[in-house]
């Protein structure tokens, strides 16, 4: 696919153009998860990858997994990487059972880039979850450390022939299962509509924003701002529009230049109203549908997934 403004996308990531290599891929992945957040400040009408590119590059926005991994897939292909997209499913920290590769998430793989520690040259990528691994993981069984976090890659027990990444215990999700069958963005369109309007509509009701970096991840749910790292989770409540908009800009890189001041304050007013007039826990876990949170894991206090 041609016609993508590679220079503008790389400028959004703060990186120069470079030929495909394991090192360049790691830099692209790390920059993407740091600079392009998972965010649901509004409900995009679809997951078309070109419109996702406009949202990310032209408006300085983020999106959910389908937008972020879909746009990143286009960029990598334009840069010459052998990249594939695959159906996946995230296991919530509250759910004792893996979801399997049910298409409620997606991941990418890149092949043909052998490197020390990964002679097979196949890599797992995911820039669409707001947490998880900061740089690509080898698509090979093993335990891999990135900063203070440890990940395990193994064959999936929930998806025959698929793979599983077990997340670090500090993170709010337990892991992700995925298939190696190739998928296209279009295959996830109906699932996105269903999730956005039904099962996961709470993401858009409360306005979730997440981004991860080398030592942890930041998360904004409604008016609650959290930082998760090796020492655990710290949380504070944002009580003014100035604090809220500063967090969006300074922590998550969402300056929202395409909006007027009135529209930006309108975002604060909408989510502040929701946060102060509704009960997040009851909305997140309706009666009769509360999952047990593993004891001793304080970092899953308000996990969205």
From TrEMBL:
Family of the protein in this entry: Belongs to the arylamine N-acetyltransferase family.
Family annotation (InterPro entries): Arylamine_N-AcTrfase (IPR001447), Papain-like_cys_pep_sf (IPR038765)
Regions of compositional bias (Basic and acidic residues) in chain numbering: 294-305
Renumbered residue ranges of the record's region Disordered: 285-305
Chain segments annotated as coiled-coil in the UniProt record: none
Segment forming the signal sequence: none
Pfam families assigned: Acetyltransf_2 (PF00797)
Domain of life of the native organism: Bacteria
Name used for this protein in its record: Arylamine N-acetyltransferase
């Amino acid at each position: 696919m041609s016609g993508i403004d590679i220079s503008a996308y790389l400028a959004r990531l703060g990186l120069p153009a470079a030929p495909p290599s394991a090192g360049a891929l790691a830099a692209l992945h790390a920059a993407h998860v740091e600079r392009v957040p998972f965010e649901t400040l509004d409900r995009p009408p679809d997951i078309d990858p070109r419109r996702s590119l406009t949202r990310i590059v032209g408006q300085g926005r983020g999106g959910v997994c389908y937008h972020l991994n879909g746009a990143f897939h286009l960029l990598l292909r334009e840069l010459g990487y052998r990249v594939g997209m695959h159906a996946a499913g995230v296991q919530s920290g509250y759910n004792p059972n893996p979801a399997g590769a049910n298409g409620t998430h997606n991941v990418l793989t890149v092949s043909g880039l052998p490197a020390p520690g990964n002679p097979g040259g196949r890599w797992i990528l995911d820039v669409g979850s707001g947490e998880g691994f900061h740089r690509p993981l080898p698509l090979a069984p093993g335990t891999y450390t990135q900063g203070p976090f440890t990940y395990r890659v193994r064959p999936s027990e929930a998806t025959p022939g698929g793979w599983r990444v077990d997340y670090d215990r500090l993170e709010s999700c337990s892991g992700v299962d995925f298939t190696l069958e190739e998928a296209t963005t279009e295959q996830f369109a109906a699932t996105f509509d269903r999730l956005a309007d039904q099962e996961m509509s709470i993401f858009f009701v409360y306005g979730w924003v997440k981004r991860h970096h080398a030592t942890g991840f930041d998360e904004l749910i409604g008016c609650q701002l959290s930082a998760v790292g090796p020492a655990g989770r710290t949380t504070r409540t944002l009580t003014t529009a100035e604090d809220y908009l500063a967090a969006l800009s300074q922590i998550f890189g969402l300056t929202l230049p395409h909006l007027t001041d009135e529209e930006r304050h309108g975002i604060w007013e909408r989510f502040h109203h929701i946060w102060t007039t509704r009960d997040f826990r009851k909305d997140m876990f309706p009666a009769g549908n509360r999952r047990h949170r593993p004891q001793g894991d304080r970092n899953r206090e308000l996990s969205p997934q």
